[in-house]
C-alpha cells in the first residue's frame, strides 16, 4: 500500500481485519520494520485517540514520531497556485510538503471539513495538497470526507463482537449542539458496503448523507423501526449535507437510550457528549463497545503503517536492482 486515504486502499477488508487482530495479539512482531524511519503527524484539528493510537502504533513498529499541531503552531498555508501571497497566508503547500518529506518517511494528516463550502471540502484541499507535493506516503487521519482509520478499527471491533454470521448493523444519527462533519459516517458506510451484514441507516428528514456514498443503502427515517432486531447500533451526529453544514434542529428524541438499544451493542467513534448523543446508562453498560473501538485504533493504524513500510521496502529493493 502506497498511501492510506480511504478504506478502499485496503483492497481486501476481511484480510486487513485478520491482520489487525494478529497484530493485536503480537504487537511487537514487526518492531524492526520502522527502524531509523520517521512518521510526521500533522494535526490541523484536535485529537485524543488518533494522535495517541497512531503514535503508539508507530512506536510498536520501531518508527520515530514527530507530532505538530499545525493548525495552531504552523504557518498558515496557501493551497492555490499563482496567488499573490500578500494577505494572511505565510507559506505555500508546495514548499511545506517538500520540506516535511525531507524530515519524515511517512506523513499523516488530520484536516476536518470546514462545513461552509461543500465543493471546497469535497476537493480535500489539505490532504490532496500534501498528496500532490509531498514525496512520501500520506495517511489520512480524518479529512473533510473520510476517516478510514476509524472505519478499519470499527471493522475489527465488529468482527471481534459479532455472534451471528450476518449481523444487523444500524447507523443512527444523533443530536448534537455543534455542526459536525460527515467523515466518520461516510467511512463507516463505505466499510459496511464491504461487509456481509444487514445494514440500515436511520436519520431524520433533511439529514441524508451524500447520495453518492449512501447509494444502494437502506435509509429509514423512523428510528424505532430501523433499530428493530439490531445487533450493533453505531451512533453519530452529522450536520445536514443538503443544507450544507447546517444544524437543522436538535431532535433530542433521537438520543440513544437503553430502551431503544434493546439487546444490541452500542458503538461510537468518540469523543461523545453524554446525555445529548447517548444517555449515561448506555455508555456505562457492558453493551457499549466504545473503549474497545478506541483500543482497535492502535491496531488499525499499526496495520496501515506496517503495509506502507513493507511497500516502501519493496520499492527500495526494486531501486537497487
Ligand atoms: N474523530 C472523531 C470525531 C471528530 C469530530 N467530532 C467532533 O468534532 C466533536 C466535537 C464536540 O463534541 O465538541 C467529528 O464528528 O468528525
Ligand atoms: N475517534 C477519533 O478519531 O478520536 P479523536 O478525534 O480524539 O482522534
UniProtKB/TrEMBL annotation:
This is N-succinylornithine carbamoyltransferase. The gene is argF'. Homotrimer. The keyword Iron does not apply. Catalyzes the transfer of the carbamoyl group from carbamoyl phosphate to the delta-amino group of N(2)-succinyl-L-ornithine to produce N(2)-succinyl-L-citrulline. Is essential for arginine biosynthesis. N(2)-succinyl-L-ornithine binds at residues 142, 176, 236, 273. Belongs to the aspartate/ornithine carbamoyltransferase superfamily. SOTCase family. It catalyses: N(2)-succinyl-L-ornithine + carbamoyl phosphate = N(2)-succinyl-L-citrulline + phosphate + H(+). The lineage of its organism: Bacteria, Pseudomonadati, Bacteroidota, Flavobacteriia, Flavobacteriales. It is an enzyme of class 2 (transferase). Carbamoyl phosphate binds at residues 47-50, 75, 110, 147-150, 269-270, 297. Keywords: Amino-acid biosynthesis, Arginine biosynthesis, Transferase. Residues 2-160 form the Aspartate/ornithine carbamoyltransferase carbamoyl-P binding domain. InterPro entries: ArgF'-like, Asp/Orn_carbamoyltranf_P-bd, Asp/Orn_carbamoylTrfase, Asp/Orn_carbamoylTrfase_sf, Asp_carbamoyltransf_Asp/Orn-bd. It comes from Croceivirga thetidis. Its EC number is 2.1.3.11.
